[in-house]
């Protein structure tokens, strides 16, 4: 397949457009289960409040487990077989799983399909960011990944609207149909020239995941890349997912309806749209990925403090507004993945760019019990969350500050 060549005149290449639309559908499906969880489980026969919670945790664990497995699988394939094979293979897999999700009749069927969907969802972002980073000139690749993220996270807004307006089964059908429609654009996208060059070098080992752990300097870079993304999932996985519980602890004023976690997720992701645009643009203006990330981490720390200690007795409207602003503050997701991709050579780039976001997402598995422990031992829900959030933010700030700056880095090289 013909290689894609950097263009000096435009950022909106076919690779950028397809990666952005693919991530749009990816986020639509990723967030859809959180939106339709209660309605879908009730229709399948789960009715008690406790069962809704435990079965929901079981299903989301299956999905996250699939994403952890898929992150490794697609990352290795991206470096061995090419960025395009992963980009479209992952879209195909999660689209088919989405369609099948609309037909489920039992919890076991639902769980296994969430596992399969999770495997598919794991591949799209890393492959897309890698392809875009390698296909654009270095002075424009930040704008390309900014577009991918900004368009992509807005998929959560569509997921919220479709899930509530059309019902949970139709919402899954829509997600599957959108993904399959994307495959029609495959003919317009070409493989990365850098990958083809590395592929032609027969002496170079590609997609060797274990090699990330055999070299201390390489392992250090990799672990620091992973740590940068953890605060985002502290915010989304703890503060926003448990918004009703935090609202109760803060004494948020009653409204016409109880505080809704789905609506908190909607406003947070709406903020993420603006945050991803702003962080990507800021990294270009400052000509520094690291300084942009440091500023956003500081902004995030400020908003975590406001969320936990500045919203006592506010109205629901003010509370949801805070969810929107905290969403802006964690809008460095694609910038984080871009930095991870830029830190490594062509023969390991897809592996890192695909595993890093999925391992960061998977940190929720450790963050939830850590939060429960902190809540029980450090003075309650608000102080426990503050301690855990402060720790993740400090570690992420250290990780960014000790990584080499990658804005001007030439990506056309391989890891020896």
UniProtKB/TrEMBL annotation:
Residues annotated as signal peptide: none
SUPFAM superfamilies given in the database record: MFS general substrate transporter
Domain of life (superkingdom): Bacteria
Gene Ontology terms, MF aspect: carboxylic acid transmembrane transporter activity
InterPro entries: MFS, MFS_dom, MFS_trans_sf
Membrane topology classification: Multi-pass membrane protein
Compartments, as annotated in UniProt: Membrane
First-listed, main subcellular location of the protein, grouped into a coarse class: membrane
Keyword Ligase among record annotations: no
Protein name: MFS transporter
Species of origin: Hymenobacter cyanobacteriorum
